[in-house]
Design goal:
5-stranded mixed β-sheet; 12 strands; 240 residues; globular; 30% helix; 7-stranded mixed β-sheet
Length: 240
Amino acid sequence: MKLKLFALCLFISAIAFGQKKPMKISITPLTNNFYVCTSYGYPDDKSPAYPANCLFAVTDKGIVLVNTPWGDEQTQQLVDSVKQRFNKKIIFCVGTHFHDDCVGGFNVLKKHGAKTYTSQQTYILAKKENNELPQYTFTGDTTFNIAGITLQIYYPGAGHTKDNIVVWLPHDKILFGGCLVKSLEADNKGFTGDADLNQWPASIKHVQNRFQTARYVIPGHLGWQGGLKQLSHTLHILNQ
């Protein structure tokens, strides 16, 4: 009996040791009422936790969000954090492509009453991959005016994925580039399993031409220092 109990304890310990450590989000002020939320995920079983960025604005009517944190649990952390810190609820979220680091918390947001959006193309790809789905979709370039915040949606062409969009917030000159844009900290293309490597450079050039006045450029992963230099850096990485 003692031997069986010892073996059971070893088995449970091995399972616990092999489990991934729960991640905690961080929230960093950007400018005025905008904040970057960083969450974490595991790209594969062998990789360490990897940071992903989403962006939110605090308004009188609630929180306006671009991308969810990476998964339901960390999205719930954000819901709880903004309630405690700002006494606000998340009222709107748009996802910039179909991967889990963009839409992986939609079910939590919907449960708390937020309206969730993606492009129709993102909806189709997310459904195909059994990823979480938005309540609403749009086609083509679109402008949202939510609680005094203007979000201009622009599709520059395929890149990191076929459906990746960028979000321009003209009042504060913030460009949320998402995973189309590489941080200055990045030294490789990252995950390219759903990428269009031939079109990606042209898509970055479209963004460069269109958003020359951007003060802040937020990539999908890692730090966001460097502003527009991140677009040139992305081209450099793609041309290696």
